[in-house]
Design brief:
Number of strands: 12
Radius of gyration: 19 Å
Strand content: 15-25%
Helix content: 40-55%
Strand order of the largest sheet: 5-2-1-6-7-8-11-12
Largest sheet: 8 strands, mixed
Number of domains: 2
Shape: globular
Order of helices and strands: EHEHEEEEHEHEEEEHEHHHHHH
CATH architecture of the largest domain: 3-Layer(aba) Sandwich
Structural class: alpha/beta
Oligomer: single chain
Number of helices: 11
Distance between the termini: 23 Å
Length: about 325
């Protein structure tokens, strides 16, 4: 399969590396130092699931003329507009970004026959260009079509098969939104608390009152999603989502926490703001989400790179999550 990865950072680098090692032809879109490093030295993955040293890799600043069978969007959500402008005109497009609103953005850009929604469970970072360090004992994806189109369903089957053939655990769901909202049920509270309290999960879970905050927010997210018509967020799915707060490794933290701590732009609006907008549209209460969003909104500008005039510096798109 010909696969285009938009965003060759931690997430795009990880799954792109696995897909290439699994025999697929992968093209990575990157810029600046990341592009230079990948062209010069390839891509190195350090992982408890097996290290990879890939050289050469096909790294480019713009999409190739050849058609893609699958495009994987793995940039931070605040760079979504730049990524969607680079979509090829053929093949499926799968978003595994954080943020439930990315489903609608992708549908508008790619159309119902090509748009796939998904999520990944993965803790990794890119400490330097061309290097991805994976630290969690898991790395999997869940995906499905974002419409009732038979073509999108076929694309979802093919995408799940491509990941599976590369040794990546892939769950094929009837609706891609389900994967995105199920991840948000865990990730948004987890990200908010690790970022706000500035500690990994092992410093949060032992405190029952703080854990109850995470669980309350997860229930608010599930309620907003159900009210918006997203299937698969009730009963056992909600219980499984709540169970992740107990199962997450003590050392695990979030990209929101790391980005905030290191003065990088953050996905606060995508991870929490999108939930508040969905709750407002559907008339579902979300007081816990609103409170955490408000606290983090006060912190985020203080830790955003400064352009010398007291504001955030321009973001560099397509560097990946």
């Amino acid at each position: 399969m010909r696969i285009l990865v938009i965003g060759a950072g931690a997430v795009g680098g990880y799954f792109g590396a696995r897909l290439q090692a699994g025999g697929h032809h992968v093209t990575f879109l990157a810029r600046g130092a990341r592009l230079a490093a990948m062209r010069a030295h390839g891509l190195r993955l350090i992982s408890p699931l097996g290290d990879l040293d890939l050289a050469p890799v096909d790294a480019r600043p713009a999409p190739p003329a050849d058609p893609a069978d699958l495009t994987l969007i793995a940039v931070k959500s605040y760079d979504n507009a730049a990524a969607l402008a680079l979509l090829p005109t053929t093949g499926a497009v799968l978003t595994i970004q954080n943020g439930v609103e990315n489903a609608d953005h992708l549908l508008a850009a790619a159309g119902p026959d090509r748009a796939l929604g998904g999520s990944c469970r993965l803790e990794c970072e890119s400490p330097e260009p061309g290097l991805v360090r994976h630290s969690s004992p898991f790395a999997d994806v869940a995906l499905g079509p974002l419409s009732q189109s038979p073509a999108a369903a076929r694309h979802a089957d093919d995408a799940a098969a491509a990941f599976s053939a590369a040794g990546v655990s892939a769950t094929r769901l009837p609706d891609g939104r389900t994967a995105m909202w199920r991840k948000a049920m865990f990730l948004s509270p987890f990200s908010a608390l690790t970022a706000l309290l500035d500690r990994p999960w092992g410093g949060i879970r032992p405190h029952p009152a703080t854990l109850a905050v995470a669980q309350a927010m997860a229930r608010e997210i599930a309620a907003a999603g159900r009210a918006a018509g997203v299937p698969g967020l009730e009963g056992d799915a909600l219980a499984a989502g709540l169970g992740l707060f107990q199962a997450a490794p003590d050392t695990m933290t979030s990209s929101l926490h790391r980005d905030l701590r290191n003065g990088r732009p953050v996905e606060l609006d995508a991870q929490l703001g999108a939930i508040l907008r969905a709750a407002a549209r559907t008339g579902t209460p979300a007081p816990t989400t609103a409170a955490l969003f408000g606290c983090l909104a006060a912190l985020a500008p203080l830790r955003t790179p400064d352009d010398g005039a007291g504001g955030p510096s321009p973001r560099k798109p397509l560097q990946g999550g």
